[in-house]
Structure formats: C-alpha cells, structure tokens
C-alpha cells in the first residue's frame, strides 16, 4: 500500500491474562506496524476477543506489556448504535468526550460520505439495514483518525453478498486512512483476502504466522497453499469448508 511503515502501532510482550486459574493469554508477543493489516484467527476460546479487549483498553488486569502508540477505535460485530440519536450524531458520539463542537456535523458528513451513507445523515438508526448499520459503525470508528483500528468480527452477522461488499469497503477505507488494523475473524478466506499477515492463535499463544502475497484486490488463488496450512492449523481437514 502507499506510504511507509515508520513505527510500531502495537507492541505486546509477554502478555498473560488469567480468569481465575484459567490462562487465556499465555506470554503472547505481537507487533503491528503503522498501516499494516493483520488478521487474527483461532478457534472459539483461543483468546482472540480477550486480546482485542486488552488492546482497546477495556481490560487492564493483565501481566506483561501491551502498548498502543496512538488513538484506538473499535468496530464490533454488533454496531452498538444509540437508537435515540440521528445517524450523524452517532458518528461523532464520544469524539469530544461528550461535548459538542461547531464542526461536528461537517466531520460526520465527511465520514458518512466515505461509507456511502451521506443520504442517511438525518435518519434514525433503526431504519438502517444490517450492512448500513455496520457502515455507520465504521464511520464512527474512522472519524477519530485512529492509528489502530480493531475489527471484532464486524461482518459476522451479514449475509454473504453484503459481507463481500463490506470487505471491499474496509480495504478501501484502510488504504485512505492507513491505520494499523487488527481484524479478528473466523473466516479464513476473509483473512487471506484482506490482510498483510495472518496469525493463528491457540491456547493463548500465536502458533503460526503467514505473510501474504499478491496484488490488491487480492484473490484467494494467490495464497491457496497458505489457505490449506491455515485450515490445518485450525484443525479443519482439507475436504472441509472454512
């Protein structure tokens, strides 16, 4: 992508998270560079969402070091919109710690234009489709110009066609804004199409890492052998579907 990697956005060293006697993250190490797109795969209970919560600053009761250099934004699987606020007001929600500025509407309008929702600025969130609500969630995340964008299975509740459209939109927004991205997903094909690196998490540790090749927009055929290896890492037989 355009631009150069000048620094690390994420530096995690020896990160351990326990719930009682259960170790969810076990001495985990991770770095994410400026403008790098990283996908994190793993079976349920492997620690993916726990790691994301730590990087988002939602869980500080950990051992080891987890440093994020700059602003963080998160887009979750559920958009978490406030139904009593107009679409544009949801975009700037939390942007100024609850305060208001005269340029809020202009900021929201530009963000909504990027996600193709400009015509819905004054609508109520309940009138949006699932895909539109998720685009609104992305606009709210990116209006802060984060250095780190965390995506927690943001397309999991969408139908197949809407999911493909959202993948292309996320890639386009990533190119424009150049944040470091950590995408948590269960979809191997999604990871291979979007990411620069794919990491597989198991029992709280990164057990494998793959660097992806091919021009963007990327095709699955560009990394078919890696796909087979990732599926094997996840315990999926070659005859099964991701």
Quick structural summary:
The chain is an alpha/beta fold and about 240 residues long. It is built from seven helices and nine strands; from the N terminus they run βββαββαααβαβαββα. A hairpin with a 2-residue loop joins strand 8 (about 195-200) and strand 9.
Textual characterization of the structure:
The protein is of the alpha/beta class. The chain has a domain at 81-144. It is 30% helix and 26% strand. The chain is built from seven helices and nine strands; from the N terminus they run βββαββαααβαβαββα. The protein has helices at 48-55, 87-91, 104-114, 130-142, 160-177, 188-194, 224-233, and strands spanning 8-19, 22-33, 37-42, 63-68, 72-76, 148-152, 180-184, 197-202, 205-211. The strands form two sheets. Strands 5-6-7-3-8-9 form a six-stranded mixed sheet, with helices on both faces. Strands 2-1-4 form a three-stranded antiparallel sheet, covered by helices on one side.
Secondary-structure topology with pairs:
Elements: E1 8-19, E2 22-33, E3 37-42, H1 48-55, E4 63-68, E5 72-76, H2 87-91, H3 104-114, H4 130-142, E6 148-152, H5 160-177, E7 180-184, H6 188-194, E8 197-202, E9 205-211, H7 224-233
Parallel strand pairs: 3-7, 3-8, 5-6, 6-7
Antiparallel strand pairs: 1-2, 1-4, 8-9
Instruction: Give Rg in angstroms.
Output: 18 Å
Identify the overall geometry.
Answer: globular
- Overall number of strands: 9
Strand order of the largest sheet: 5-6-7-3-8-9
What are the defining features of this structure?
242 residues; alpha/beta; six-stranded mixed β-sheet; three-stranded antiparallel β-sheet; 7 helices
